[in-house]
Please model this.
Amino acid sequence: MSNPLPAKERMKIPRQHMPEQEPEFRRANFEEVNLGLDATLAKQEALRCLQCTSQHCFIGCPVGVKVREFIDLIVEGDYLGAAAKIREDNVLPAVTGRVCPQEEQCEGRCVLTKKGEAVAVGYLERFVADYERTHGKVGLPPRAPATGRKVAIIGSGPAGLSAAGDLVQKGHEVVVMEALHEIGGVLIYGIPEFRLPKDIVRQEVDTMRQMGVEFRTNVVVGKTVTVDELLSEEGYDAVFVATGAGLPIFLNIPGENLCGVYSANEFLTRVNLMKANRDDHDQPVFDCRGKDVVVIGGGNTAMDAVRTSLRVGARNAAIVYRRSEQEMPARVEEVKHAREEGVDFKMLTAPLEFLDDGKGWLQGVRCQTMELGEPDASGRRRPVPIAGSEHVVPASMAIIAVGNGGNPLVQATTPDLKTTRKGYIEADPNSLRTSKKGVFAGGDIVTGGATVILAMGAGRQAAKSIHEYLETGAW
Amino acid sequence: MYKILEAKFLAPQVKLLRLEAPAIARRRKAGQFVILRVHETGERIPLTIADSDKESGSITIIVQGVGKTTRLLNEKEAGDSILDVVGPLGMASEVEHFGTAVVIGGGLGTAIAYPTAKALKEAGNHVIVIIGGRSKEFVLLENEMKEFADEVYVTTDDGSYAEKGFVTDRLKGLIEGGRDINYVLAIGPIPMMNAVAGVTKPYGIKTVVSLNPVMVDGTGMCGGCRVLVNGESKFACVDGPEFDAHQVDFRLLSTRNTMYRAAEQSALAEFEQDHDDHECRLMKQADAQQSQPAQA
Ligand SMILES: Cc1cc2nc3c(=O)[nH]c(=O)nc-3n(C[C@H](O)[C@H](O)[C@H](O)COP(=O)(O)OP(=O)(O)OC[C@H]3O[C@@H](n4cnc5c(N)ncnc54)[C@H](O)[C@@H]3O)c2cc1C
Ligand SMILES: Cc1cc2nc3c(=O)[nH]c(=O)nc-3n(C[C@H](O)[C@H](O)[C@H](O)COP(=O)(O)OP(=O)(O)OC[C@H]3O[C@@H](n4cnc5c(N)ncnc54)[C@H](O)[C@@H]3O)c2cc1C
Ligand code: SF4
Ligand code: SF4
Ligand code: FES
Model:
């Protein structure tokens, strides 16, 4: 252990603040909000770690990043070593350092939370990953001799990408097929630039390309080619289905089809993937400059949609959420940032109807106020409407961000692939094998909408299991 | 990149493009479409696959230049390329042996209906085609339809060619004349499809229309293409684009299709301006070359 300070001294150091763009300024641009720690701040933060033997942080991380060890390497000043240490368990540290819900995972378990604030594991992870990106000689990992085996990966989100990276290192031929024209899944079309610069994703993809992964865009499996064809005519030995949870859920309330009402997927895709906000790009998006916007939901998607609407010019942007702030599933930092940027939070408010201006365009959302009643099946207190509390929130644009289901295109054309009642693919939790020989599935298409790190973990687990299958042929 | 193998105008601003896209050509069925993006800053737009050829691995699209992107496509020539083409998307047309099938195409709708009309004939139907156009030059694919259809009728709004009137007049004529019609497919402008639905409904004739909402991904991911059918939201890109005409909310569809009107109009105006500038420059260059004395 390299930390020279006694525990008592370490605990006196306050948690370092992430330098950020000022709220008034950033709400009008798409540059990253968090600017990143510099080496001095990172070192200072790393010194706070008690290097405890219990390693709760490690247990809290879904993929078991060796947090204590990589922080120790930061203290030593060996940033590339720290990056390599993280990469043993996590292939997308520049992404997860930015988007993991750390407060529920590594940081949530850190012993320091008992007395004060957790070590900023996420900030440190981001720091070393960024350091590696800008300073490292990003050497490619060694690739095993070619095995002559071919694996098709369907979907290029974190699950598909991480599986591809691991399998290509084992010497297999790997082809990733993606429905959209760009690689990255939600990391590209969903999470906005101001939280996750797309260059980071592109750089990861380029590295994989150099490692030998083949990427095919504009391929919709189930339409352009089926899983059965991949396994027969196309000569693949295994298929990994990582198609995510990309089916938008609507509210089924009146007025949902008015002009100006969007799913978050559509709004975010138009802006993130298609750059609809930029004059030099052709895809249009509702022009909300100087207008009022309402976003329905309380997760990361809702926060991304509401903050994006501000950046494309909304005058007022409000979150309408039917429970209270404690129940909001969004990352704590996103809620804080949204609030600083001037987002209006209408908690305990449920939408009843989208109101027509008489010409088919949205003019407001009729809502009712809720109070919290008894806990429901999810353990969260159930919102109950307050009689006589109906009111109208004016809005020219509304964005629905209440969750996504599994896209059925692959399942519908692969009859022997078992699905759950909700339409997700059934896969063994350890081997990620599906009901169909040679076909594996993981990420959001199995779990339902979850997190980047869980999807990444599933991708690596699948790679391991697929490799075993390819070696032994046993199912 | 998807290479253009053939390009030719069929009517003013209506261009046929044959593209190299073997994976799409291999699986595509009548009624399906592609989504394409012409270049890096372009938008994604849906276009029906009018025809395909497995041998040469090509698909044919027929594009009407109504806005910036389609006008840009109108300028493409054989040898040029298109950046992204994805498909085949959507459900294939329901092609069965119905008996007597009437296929109605209004304007560009004729091109969209063409592959299904052909498939209906192949399935053993007696196929009657009614082609409508604003005027003579907008009557599309008459000869191509005549190659296989049992009967082909043409109407023009202004009477500049064939029968003066609307496609619905001809359809009514057939029904009232006692023809036993088992199936109607109508594709064209929304008011036309709505009118056809109105004509066949009292007779209980199964009628299908192909809807053209605004689309983005074409895979069911965004929900932007939702249409109301029998009071239920459907995603036209995966559940359609063909639906039961008697259950479609046409008014909602036409309202939703105006969502980007302002942006579309300014994009087109800008495009035309650039285009004119470009032509002006070429003219000037040509003039300059002519007036300049040849240099030794
Ligand atoms: C707006 C938004 C914000 C989020 N914020 C966070 C956050 O801050 N932190 C966090 O941890 N998680 C966040 N999440 C969740 C996280 O992004 C997902 O859990 C994760 O991306 C799932 O990864 P995946 O690989 O399973 O699927 P995805 O990332 O969804 O990728 C699936 C890919 O498969 C493609 N595909 C689908 N069907 C087909 C087909 N038939 N053929 C070919 N390709 C197909 C899709 O186009 C897509 O590119 C957010 C999600 C959204 C939508
Ligand atoms: C499933 C499907 C199949 C289609 N097949 C064909 C085809 O084979 N050939 C073809 O030329 N067009 C087809 N279309 C329509 C085509 O997609 C639009 O014409 C195109 O998106 C317009 O783009 P633009 O940028 O050129 O014009 P824009 O600037 O977007 O629009 C210009 C004008 O066209 C109208 N318009 C916009 N979008 C549509 C639309 N989706 N449908 C009809 N009118 C629209 C606008 O209201 C406006 O008046 C199809 C549409 C769908 C949904
Ligand atoms: S991957 Fe996420 S949970 Fe794990 S250590 Fe990194 S930031 Fe924490
Ligand atoms: S629990 Fe906290 S203090 Fe302990 S090793 Fe992990 S990060 Fe360091
Ligand atoms: S175009 Fe996005 S769901 Fe149909």
Remarks:
- The two ends of chain B are 43 Å apart (CA to CA).
